[in-house]
Amino acid sequence: MTETKRTAFITGGTAGIGAAAVHAFAAAGWRVVTTGRRADRLDKLTEALGADTVHTLAFDIRDKAALEKAIAGLPADFADIDLLINNAGLALGTSPANEAKLDDWQTMIDTNITALVTVTRLLLPGIVARKGAIINLSSVAATYPYAGGNVYGGTKAFVRQFSLGLRADLHGKGVRVTSIEPGMVETEFTTVRTGGDQAASDKLYGGVNPMTAEDIAATMLWVAEQPKHLNINTLELMPVNQSFAGFAVAREG
Q1: What local confidence, expressed as pLDDT, does residue 2 receive?
Q2: What topology is assigned to 7-237 in CATH?
Q3: Residue numbers annotated as active site
């Protein structure tokens, strides 16, 4: 008897960790539904992996109406979601809180929190029915604050706590929930954060030997394919050359 393919729903699949996750799960035999704003990049995923393996949805994850319509319109082969990977998210700006742009803060909250809980709520009944799993992409910024991290770190702390809350609410239902919390991963993350400053990105990651999008995607796949009786609650990863910092001390005089 042929085993039924499992289906993963991966948000933010057009670049970085999301795109790497689409490739990793497809290579492991999963069907994948993935979302993103850049239709041309989604088309390339379909071309590379095949329409029978990947179903793409082009819209802004912050658009609730578009999200509801996309989920309601999933074709039969992709409609039963076994795994949700809440990957879509971003950081904007590096200024201290008193100089930060309020619009940047709002965009991070709308993307990293509001959109994440919306897609989770919409897919959750099916995931519960199928005893599936949820992987939320948080960050070490959820635990270790740093200058300029302000609202970004706050959103990722929410993601971590929301993951724990889901575990509590779904106790006894056979649903696994994991918060994955990476440190430095070299993707488009910093160029987006700095408004396209590639030099700033190169400087940040230079000489660090940072983690790659493929490293995190492989970790997500490993978590997803653990035995169904085993839950990874929280998984924190850093490159060897990064560690949590000591206390900062400002000296007067």
Answers
A1: 46
A2: Rossmann fold (3.40.50)
A3: 152
